[in-house]
Amino acid sequence: MIGSALVIARKDLRQRLRDRSAIVLGLVAPLGIAALMSFAFKGTDTFHFTLGIVDADHGPVASALIQTLQQPSLRQIVTISPAASPSLASAEVRNQKMAAALVIPAGFSASVAGGHPLAITTVTSVNNTIAGSVASSIASSFVAQLNADRLSVATALAAGAPATQAQRLAALAADLRIPEQAVQRPLGAHELKTISYYSPGMAIFFLLFTVSFTSRSFFVDRAQGMIDRMRAAPIHPVEILAGKALSVFAYGVVSLATIAVITSAAFGANWGNPLAAGALGLALVFSVVCLTALVIGVARTQRQAEGFSSIIVFGLALLGGNFVFLSSEPPLMRRLALLTPNGWAMRGFTDLATIGGGFGTVVLPIVAILVFSAVVGTAAGLLASRAVTA
How far apart are CA 330 and CA 338, in angstroms? Predict the structure, then answer.
């Protein structure tokens, strides 16, 4: 039985290697799209913008704001560019020479000590909402600190401090900081690079096309009498299906492994621990084998097989997050992704690239994929044998 299945698998693999489209879909296309994704999103992992400053005040508080923006912690995010007037700053933002601008009005420093402080104006553009949000956040944080300082001075004066000490109290308050602040701290996870997401995403997407190739090959063989000649050998129907399955499995494993090696070496993609990624890939390829058998069992003609395959390929790719980050999808789509083997595989590869770890990181995705494969494989086993004997 094993010998006959191996012969059939070798025959299918030879046919597939002679078919250039199979090589393109299994290797060239996913590598090409992964490379395009890498170049398209290159530089988006970091954020930096030019912020215009209109200082019409030239007072100590305005100088403190400018010094805050020039701190080393903000230099990686923002570059300060002086502007002569609010109208000029608006024009620069409109022409995208500046991403956003802050306008400090004349008399701002003096008004902070009074009861009606002047407002800082934020100039933003609809073409760069992220920079506008960051600029507004910076201005809001600075104003919140000013209000805290003013409140502390007012509290001290209300508690009985001499009014003549107001300036000294203000100077002391300026050295204080709001005690409760949000601080970003790493939790041990690495940042997910775009290439590390789309390399497995595109590899899995084009792996799903194996369903179409193999099912179409089966019906071509049946139409040409190849299946009948195999059975006359005699070869049991199970051996024929096993041979087809072995060819799918071998092709899928080689395709995934090759893409993983090339994208890691050439583009810096992170697939995670090789053993864990390999186990996850094997489980995924096995699910593709089961899907192929199901299509062969359900379809009655080559055209039906191609139609069912297209529905499966694009349906799973859209639900499983091969084109867009799962984390950016609505909650319903994220739940639906967990009904697909490729959705679990994308989750597993993403965890390996960010959290790291070994086999324990992908145990749940592997189990989920195997459960899916068991359900689909059982249905395929009941239907596919009839396709061989039909």
Answer: 13
